[in-house]
Amino acid sequence: METMFGIAVDGVAYGMILFIISVGLSVTLGLMRVVNLAHGAFAMVGGYVASYAAQEAGLPYAAALVVAVALTVLATLPLERLLYRRIYGSANELAQVLLTIGLTFVIVAGINYLFGPTLKRIPLPELLTGTVELGPKAIPAHRAFVIAAGAATLLGLWWLLERTDFGIRLRAAVDDPAMAAALGIRTERLYLATFALGTGLAALGGVLGAELLPLEPYYAIRYIVLFLAVVAVGGAGSIFGSAAAALALGIVDTAGKYLIPSFGEFFFYAALILILFRWPHGFFKGRTA
Amino acid sequence: MTSVAERDENGDSKGGSMTRRTPLGTPLAARRDLGWIGIPLVAAVGLAAFWLLPDDLALLTRIAASALFVLSLDLVLGYGGIATLGQAAMFGTGAYAAGIVAVNWNNDPFVMLAAGGLAGGLIALATGALILHARGLTLLMLTIAVGQIVQEVANKARDWTGGSDGLSGVDPAPVLGMFRFDMYGRTSYLFALAVLVVGLLVARRIVRSPFGLACRGVSEDPLRISAIGGSPKSYLVVLYGVAGVFAGVAGALTAVTSGIVGLDSAGFPWSAEALVMLVLGGTGRLYGAVIGTAAFMGIHHILAASDPFHWMGFIGLFLIGIVLFLPGGIASGLERLGGLLRGPSQNNGEDRA
Hints:
heterodimer; A: 289 residues; mainly alpha; ABC transporter involved in vitamin B12 uptake, BtuC; two-stranded antiparallel sheet; 13 helices; 2 strands; 72% helix; B: 353 residues; disordered N terminus; disordered C terminus
């Protein structure tokens, strides 16, 4: 019973981190049709900036979080203009994979040059180091915080996409970019804003998840498969799909590690193959084919 | 459109193709000429390297074996249009099959290659039939997942594969009973080079056969292929299986020449690296695979000696540059250069290509 509770809490927290990072990838994939393998690198950059801000510059956790997200978005916006804009669209998948792998390599090398190859930590404030009483059980405050942040992200995104003007334009552009442009929607600006949203979410997830996905230069390569898996199962462009897929994969992975550690990630990938074999467009059909 | 034009040209393969122009204005003649020279050139350069760089034979052997692996990826990607990040699944399966056969039953190098090719082909057929209906990100994820599962199974089957310690103690018998694998790696290198050249010849035969042309047709317009009575998926599955044989032989070749098989031989990074090498060289050309592998591993050898991260930064920038400025890879750059050298008067229409 105690184990089950541990699996549930850790699995949900882990799933929420996967969700926050992957949903950014899902949104950019759904709108711009770009398989962005550098998404993990953006999450890593966010984590490193927060770590630097908290440890070297001495900022409090919340301020470090904001600085990290803002700086990552600012740093990646030129990339959208210079690199990504050339490879939008599903026709040049191979160019997307290669360009973004190349970008990932450059970021990994740059991070190693600036911060060194050692593991980096983001010190948690005292508020998050204790436990939270939840009826008879107590769960670590950091896990509770992560779960709450994930839920807030989910609600915020839902509100943004379903209830705001921006969301309406975005959904129109996902459904039919040419028609949206013909109706006077400035798709280029929309792409820029969506890209910023995606990298911002990546950075947020990178900072919040530093306890679960430790920060080191190979982070960008090690976890990108995980994020892509969430998007593939959830269906590109679908927020609730990403959330459900992230939670399911997070719980499956955590349960596998707790209960049958010797099998590693076997079940994770076996489940992935089965799901994608049956539902090639994702378990929760996204807005894109 | 390329395949149709090349089929037209197949009639006069004896000569005179230099001057022949297709109405489409693409440099088919140049591509075909380099194709003919390519394989003897690989053999000649390989032999020259044997005498010129006697201290780097281990590296050269790795390059030859990896080039065969990248060649298998070229069959899948360049001719079938299947974007995959899991080709190492076949490479690793072939390497483990060869290693296990050598340790337990028969250590003749040719038996090992056959075992590797068979295992690679079988796993490619089985997984290809399962996953090739998908496209885009879904296909990428499926190929990655297959690779991870092969790696995980190899990790679990400790008794057979040595798990994370790797399978060591592979000690191949002399080639043809005459040439022992010496400690300087001379036999290894020549053996690897010979297998690579044979692989190139076979691959060239395959891509120029009706089957190869049909596969190219599938990658260009699957709907049309089914309209004229072909089955796109079955062509792709067979092509995937054939490429799996090549990848399996490449894995077995690595097992023969290095004497060890590690878990990383089936890993995601190795698949991604192969893709990078192929694209550096140029897809859909066969010899582009050799050029790309030699360039990638050669530069890696020089740069990574100081710091592996410098290497990553360099190769990353190089990749971005290739995608933005030279989408056909090094080979297309060479072809354009060759076209320029042959005389600007002939080339008016070609510079766009």
